[in-house]
Design a protein that fits this description.
Elements: H1 6-9, E1 23-28, H2 33-41, H3 43-46, H4 50-54, E2 57-61, E3 81-86, E4 89-95, H5 100-111
Parallel strand pairs: 1-2
Antiparallel strand pairs: 1-3, 3-4
Length: 119
């Protein structure tokens, strides 16, 4: 279950991701209708969820070229594609947007692949 944390919603208590921190890449391009659907259904709450706090979102517009710092991550032509990255390496990948219910379930399985951290 996703719990919206009041501190995160207020922008308090969040830490900027480090190079080793988990990040969820969203590979997108202009005109992608499933990207637009994700923007309507998920984007407004993602950063406020437990999932978003654990793996902050980083958008990569494929029409602008591939970022140099992602050289170790395989490119993908399908949009949207979500790539969970930690420590500069790919942990898991989800191609396409299956709708909000399935997205959260599949993202949970992706995040389960991350090492457990002491809190």
């Amino acid at each position: 279950m996703r719990i919206i944390i009041a501190l995160a919603a207020a922008g308090l208590g969040t830490v900027a991701p480090t190079a080793d921190a988990a990040t969820l890449l969203m590979l997108e391009r202009p005109g992608c209708m499933y990207c637009a659907r994700w923007d309507l259904e998920i984007a407004p709450v993602y950063a406020k969820t437990d999932e978003g706090l654990r793996a902050p979102l980083r958008r990569v517009d494929l029409s602008e070229g591939w970022p140099e710092d992602l050289g170790g991550i395989a490119r993908d032509a399908m949009t949207p594609t979500f790539v969970l990255v930690e420590g500069g390496r790919e942990v898991a990948r989800l191609r396409g947007y299956p709708g909000d219910s399935f997205f959260w379930q599949l993202l949970g399985k992706m995040l389960d692949k991350l090492p457990v951290t002491a809190e």
